[in-house]
Amino acid sequence: MKPLEGIRILDFTQFMAGPMATMLLSDMGAEVIKFENASTGGDNTRYRKFIKDGASSHYATRNRGKKSVAINMKDPKQVEFFLRLVKDADAVIENYKPGTMEKFGVTYDRLKEINPKITYVRISGYGQTGPYADHAAFDATVQAEAGIMSITGPEGSDGFKCGASVGDYSGALLGAFSVAMGIVSALRSGEGCCVDLSMMDALIFMQENQLSVYKVTGKLPKPSGNRYPAASPIGDFMCKDGIPVMLNISTDKQWADFAKVLGQPQWLEDPDFVSMSKRAENFRKVEAEVLRVFADMTSDEVCEKLQSVQAVYGRINNYETLVNHPQVLYRKTFVNANYANGISYSVPGNPLNVVGMERQMDYGTAAIGENTMEIMGQVCTPEELEQVVAPVQKLAEEKAAALYAKS
Amino acid sequence: MKPLEGIRILDFTQFMAGPMATMLLSDMGAEVIKFENASTGGDNTRYRKFIKDGASSHYATRNRGKKSVAINMKDPKQVEFFLRLVKDADAVIENYKPGTMEKFGVTYDRLKEINPKITYVRISGYGQTGPYADHAAFDATVQAEAGIMSITGPEGSDGFKCGASVGDYSGALLGAFSVAMGIVSALRSGEGCCVDLSMMDALIFMQENQLSVYKVTGKLPKPSGNRYPAASPIGDFMCKDGIPVMLNISTDKQWADFAKVLGQPQWLEDPDFVSMSKRAENFRKVEAEVLRVFADMTSDEVCEKLQSVQAVYGRINNYETLVNHPQVLYRKTFVNANYANGISYSVPGNPLNVVGMERQMDYGTAAIGENTMEIMGQVCTPEELEQVVAPVQKLAEEKAAALYAKS
Questions:
Q1: ipTM at complex level
Q2: What's the CATH code of the domain at B251?
Q3: Could you count the other beta carbons within 10 Å of the beta carbon of residue B76?
Q4: Does B235 sit within 8 Å of A327, measured CB to CB?
Q5: For B86-144, how does the pLDDT look when each residue is reduced to its tens digit (9 = 90+)?
Q6: Nearest to B224 by CA among B242, B210, B238, B244
Q7: Rounded to 5°, angle at Cα A348 from A343 and A349
Q8: What residues of chain B lie within 8 A of the CB of A363, using their CB?
Q9: Number of domains forming the structure of chain A
Q10: How far apart, in whole angstroms, are the C-alpha atoms of residue A255 and residue A271?
């Protein structure tokens, strides 16, 4: 059994941050019902590269395992159907622009009135309130606003964003946590909660270390390449075979083991290297010494020696070596997201290893509105289904077909 | 009331990933009891810069709000005291090197025997099992192994790590989620769960987009500066006043609004710019055009115009402008971590805005073992307290005093 089996999530998310939150919940066993706007053909990642036979990899990679319901929230009748579903659901989650759910007539007060146990999680770029609440936000622009660009990249540069969408994904993780937390609260007190979380706040969480240092020193941090200012050697060091190895040698114990295994006992006598702060101060000298020694060793030789003393080092993988990484193969990291039409994509699987829970290797991926009739059938009369729901589903399918024809 | 009030977490974490997980739980109301190794003077961040009167900023920023208990897990008696606490606790969390808790005699089976509802969350670099389980891991080396370095940094470079410790913090967020999820499971089924999670898996979660693309195309992604390959203009664009603005203009609607508000209707006639994929293909021409227009406008003028059409843009903040950011001031992002001796640090606060929960601005920060007698007193006899617990606390204090004297 999966830990969240029997939990029902009503999911109004799209793009990246929201869907990754609900995918994690789905991976853990929750039933995630993804509501998609019928009039736009649903989540626009359905129409992003890569598409085979109307099946998008972009959609599959973060929506595998979920159910899809087509809906038009501008129709009060359909909003009412959604609210009927709220009665027996555990959580509602959304990542629209602030104000959108309100336009649909959905507020926490209304949800709570229907179901006091409901948890309502809202993910946005900057938060539901405040001077930036109405700023449009994508990962790259929030990385800019949140200062993370100012500390990433080569020394001397003006800074670069992180190549991964860390704003979206950290928002996603906070979102999944918030849903689980709200359910804990509901199970214990009978009342869920409403969480307003932002990618900006998530990225600030991810910089607590440097931000706290800045608050003490007032000294602006700058991009420092692969170094950390507080210790040395930290960074990438080239070996004889042209392959660099990443090091993170900080404590005195680590430094002593490192010097010994590399056959450089004189490092331990050098007053410039005597403490972590001394090595940090004299980092250019430390680095020159390490490079001198690595110049005579292949990266394999370096890694073997370092592993023998449990040094903190890493190989710098690209995506080819990453997907073939022994640990990635062992953990069965990649799984299949399968559409009913037979199209399948290899995508990262559930990131959590729950003891005793078998690793799921195959996940269904829903076509637009694949579950509309099933889910709405749970709360609608046959007349409502025929007169309201079926036409919406038909619209969604037509819209999707037209968009796929263009793409 | 905070959502996790009444939840008790027994916390064996140190450094960064683990403590940030339990700090989030503590922020949400859980009672977090941090067990610190008496013989080493506790979490070694207590002795990292910056320290005033034996109060470390490094420790405060990720341990504010927690209780501290000094313990020696090599003593089976003290392990037994810990196990007595397990009986009424909700979760145990640790981020030691795999195998360490086993050496202390602590396994999930043993915890479950004492309390079937317990949740046990284990954070490590690469996981508890597999060929890399015994690899030492710090953030920088896991960033290397997990491939995120290979997609970060300027175009043409070999790649750089993200300046923030995204491996640690994404592991922290998965850890906090796992605890909450286990508690949901315990409350519903009477049984918690054991989660083995790794920073490596967390970083793969954070790259699902690019990894899925790679799995389809087989084309190795490389660092692409501040661009995304799938759309343009995305990246930093210099303005007349020497201040760049970050743009993320992707859809046709966004492009049309952008062209119009900048007074460049001819862009909408240009066949090279006619679709998202065309603009991505001709990104150098797109960028040259944008730079031409921005060269005549200050960054304030650019932002004002872009905001008027709800364009997706951002100012590129450094830490000085970030801590004074209107949204950061509005959200009261920075709070105080206060030690009993009067030393206080300004640190990032709770990242979640829970509706109806007042923002806490002041947090206590425990000296080593500040709560040893209080917590152990709940499960020990007066004799045990006097003979076993008090001496451990004394040892911890002496060790700490000696380390502070050196630092």
A1: 0.98
A2: 3.30.1540.10
A3: 9
A4: no
A5: 999 999 999 999 999 999 999 999 999 999 999 999 999 999 999 999 999 999 999 99
A6: B210
A7: 95
A8: none
A9: 2
A10: 13
